[in-house]
Inverse folding.
């Protein structure tokens, strides 16, 4: 593949693997908090290349996976209201709620449309002014600016039938919550896409206060191997600092325009995360000036009580406490074709990554 092969160079990979083995002097636990990294690490078989002393954990990096079940239940309740159109990213549609999924609701005839961006949802609202359109706004700092642009545009054009149901999450509070819970992390493989927006300073507190080195990584084998080597060296030198490995995409200051519009439209509030519970200031909620676009504040809905998953340990997996094969349902009653939990639904979920690349040995 053009422009990618240089980041998959076998000779350089071998040298990095040798350097990793040479530098490993004890036990190291590193966590990635990005669904793209979860997939890449499994796809390229990175764990099998590392010394036994290095343990890689998948954390809360898949947006669909961390979205709480009650959010799915709320979206389903809205979908059942006449004259409401739900606009959602494709991954979310198959995530099981307590009693149904958006996919099942669509099959029942409710108006649920798959979109690729918040602006697509805005277009649907413009074309259907006699209906209320609710965009299911999920994802981290990577997707939030797109939602913010759509909200600002709706405001500018005086659109009255466009709403968002926000579950936009912030990554640093979750990274801190994991450590606060007592989970031992020696280094964070920090998310590449999130960091293109935020820059690197958002990890400073994790490095300084928690003493955990952070390296922002790209997604190719050489990126990940170099990141792991850098983390090992930082641990060995007791040097908890933040470093950007993914320099071809991430600037230390991030994308200032995106940060500006996020700040203008959103404010950080407390939020539930699947598996992690309530985390302070970890969700982006519309600012007062834009709350007329907030579905929950403007469209009344009755949501049935959320029922806990039976047997699904997705929450434990998102904290790095267990791995997908440790789930009794993995590759039995839970597969990508018949997912029981969110971690198997999403193309960035740890269970699907293990299923595709460890169990079924897919190579692409
Ligand atoms: Fe949940 Fe399925 Fe993963 Fe088990 S394999 S944790 S049931 S998503």
């Amino acid at each position: 593949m053009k422009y990618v092969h240089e980041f998959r160079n076998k000779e350089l990979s071998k040298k990095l693997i040798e350097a990793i083995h040479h530098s490993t002097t004890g036990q190291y636990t590193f966590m990635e908090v990005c669904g793209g990294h979860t997939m890449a690490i499994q796809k390229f078989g990175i764990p099998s290349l590392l010394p036994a002393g290095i343990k890689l954990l998948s954390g809360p990096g898949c947006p669909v996976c961390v979205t709480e079940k009650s959010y799915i239940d709320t979206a389903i309740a809205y979908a059942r209201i006449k004259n409401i159109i739900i606009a959602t990213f494709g991954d979310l549609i198959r995530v099981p709620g307590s009693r149904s999924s958006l996919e099942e609701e669509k099959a029942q005839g409710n108006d649920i449309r798959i979109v690729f961006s918040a602006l697509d949802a805005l277009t649907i609202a413009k074309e259907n002014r006699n209906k209320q359109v609710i965009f299911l706004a999920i994802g981290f700092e990577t997707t939030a600016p797109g939602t913010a642009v759509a909200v600002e545009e709706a405001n500018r054009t005086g659109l009255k039938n466009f709403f968002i149901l926000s579950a936009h999450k912030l990554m640093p509070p979750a990274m801190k919550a994991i450590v606060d819970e007592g989970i031992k992390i020696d280094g964070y493989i920090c998310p590449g896409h999130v960091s293109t927006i935020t820059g690197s300073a958002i990890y400073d507190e994790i490095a300084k206060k928690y003493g955990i080195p952070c390296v922002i990584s790209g997604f190719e084998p050489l990126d990940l191997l170099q990141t792991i080597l850098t983390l090992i060296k930082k641990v060995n030198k007791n040097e908890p600092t933040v470093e950007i490995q993914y320099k071809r995409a991430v600037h230390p200051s991030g994308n200032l325009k995106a940060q500006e519009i996020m700040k203008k439209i959103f404010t950080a509030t407390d939020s539930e995360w699947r598996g992690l519970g309530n985390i302070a200031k970890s969700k982006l909620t519309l600012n007062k000036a834009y709350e007329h676009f907030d579905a929950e504040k403007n469209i009344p809905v009755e949501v049935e009580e959320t029922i806990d998953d039976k047997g699904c340990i997705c929450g434990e997996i998102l904290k790095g406490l267990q791995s997908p094969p440790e789930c009794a349902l993995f590759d039995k009653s839970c597969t990508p074709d018949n997912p029981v939990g969110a971690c198997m639904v999403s193309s960035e979920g740890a269970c699907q990554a293990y299923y595709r690349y460890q169990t079924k040995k897919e190579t692409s």
The CA atoms of residues 131 and 345 lie 30 Å apart.
